[in-house]
Amino acid sequence: MPTKSSAKSQAIDLTGKLDGAPPLWLLASGELSTAATGKPPLGLDARDALVAAARWISSRRTSTFERLFADDPKSSARLTAEQARGMLAQVDSALSASAVGGEAAKRDGDGAAEARSAALTVLSHHVATVLHDKSWRPIADRAAQSIFALIDKETGATARPALRGHAIGLLQLRAPALSPKDRARAQTLLKTLLRTAPPYPQLTGPWRFAMCNADTFHDGECELLITPHGFKEIPMPGDFPSPPHGAQSPYRVFEAPFRTPGGDPIQVFARVAEPEDENIEMGSPRFIGLMINRHAQLGSFDMTASRCTSLSRVTN
Prior knowledge:
Helices cover 38% and strands 12% of the residues. The chain has ten helices and eight strands. The chain is elongated and about 65 Å long. 34% of the residues are buried.
């Protein structure tokens, strides 16, 4: 395996070419570390390395480990099956140390949830690798079992419902890489999060949706409502004076050319939003739904999302 550091350490620098990225090394044992040398971190000591790995994974153009540097055609560096086993053991040690109900979770709930979230992202990457390397089947199956275990344990006072929902969503995303038995199990879990149909009897009065757009998307998204779909811009309804506290711009309001089953209007309240305020409406009883339009940043904010109380509300 090609290395960037000395032959003695046999570690690969995964983020050295990424400007501003935290250090992340793949050790010869397959474990992840924030340093090229020294004892591989285990348990909660591995959190920083796993968080850096989750961000590295989320920024990649490939969702697998069979190539470590997909943007470098000259590099054939990859994770071997033996190294994968070492990484999975490290991930399992972090999950055990940060488990719901454990001392670490009671002492620092956010930090423990961050470790579990990062571990989940690494496990998902292992599952996906089998689609490109069939020899990865035992490793993918083991990683999937660790994800199922995380889901089963993510209950109780120190649990993060959003993290459990995210884990189930990742299993759905990785369904083509799961074994038939695990795919069926993941489908059953997914049904626990989804209604078979909206609760129409409970949705009385106007149906109001928030639409939070990146600044450069806003005008275009509003125009899409008008031109192809026939929405009309209307004045702000009298019973809806302003956006929730924390929003950075006023709403533009659009009404659909069709009505609810009860004959009430369907309205979209559109505003400019930044990542830190784009989900405020999730916690507002004024809205029955939220749309977010911006460049996909999957992973960039997942450490924050795992602690986001408004996201927890929508997944409960």
